Design the sequence.
């Protein structure tokens, strides 16, 4: 699963570079100030993670979706794999949507396209799509405000990493420390057998 995600997000990164080259633009401009971009990205990620936790507690549909997706996404995953997917998704998506598409299509169209990338298999996942459209606007505003992709990329990577790691930790905490550790050890053993370890 991790390899597939890495390939997908690497393809987004390559698409961003190709679109930038075709348009004669550098899609990897970090921004006016690296320090300000990093600070803005970290602050934004902290805010989105807190908002996500609050919404999770307030909206039962998020808890139901979480229970359905956890066995596929976090239960058997190693921490290292969750971090790799977080970095690749944040870098690949931001390079494409903010770096390559937003300067051409504008923040509205780019945010809607970002939401389309996050459409789920049925209507219950609409809340995830709406969240993604909102995140698209937020990351797009960060891109405009800071003059580059460092801030939205930082926010996106940190949001995904914190969310996935909190999700994994909360599930391990509920299942008990021995069961949670046994699942992670089994996952690491399976990865070693597949040659991923």
Sequence:
């Amino acid at each position: 699963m991790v390899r597939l995600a890495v390939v997908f997000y690497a393809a987004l990164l390559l698409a961003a570079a190709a679109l930038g080259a075709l348009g004669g633009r550098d899609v990897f401009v970090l921004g006016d100030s690296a320090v300000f971009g990093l600070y803005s990205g970290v602050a934004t990620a902290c805010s989105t993670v807190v908002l996500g936790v609050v919404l999770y507690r307030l909206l039962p549909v998020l808890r139901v979706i979480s229970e359905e997706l956890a066995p596929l996404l976090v239960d058997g995953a190693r921490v290292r794999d969750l971090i790799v997917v977080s970095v690749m998704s944040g870098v690949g998506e931001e390079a494409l949507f903010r770096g390559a598409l937003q300067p051409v299509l504008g923040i509205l169209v780019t945010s809607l396209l970002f939401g389309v990338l996050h459409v789920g298999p049925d209507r219950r996942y609409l809340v995830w799509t709406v969240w993604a459209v909102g995140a698209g606007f937020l990351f797009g505003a960060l891109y405009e405000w800071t003059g580059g992709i460092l801030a939205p990329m930082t926010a996106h990577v940190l949001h995904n990493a914190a969310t996935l790691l909190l999700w994994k930790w909360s599930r391990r905490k509920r299942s008990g420390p021995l069961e949670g550790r046994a699942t992670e050890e089994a996952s690491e053993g399976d990865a070693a057998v597949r040659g991923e370890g």
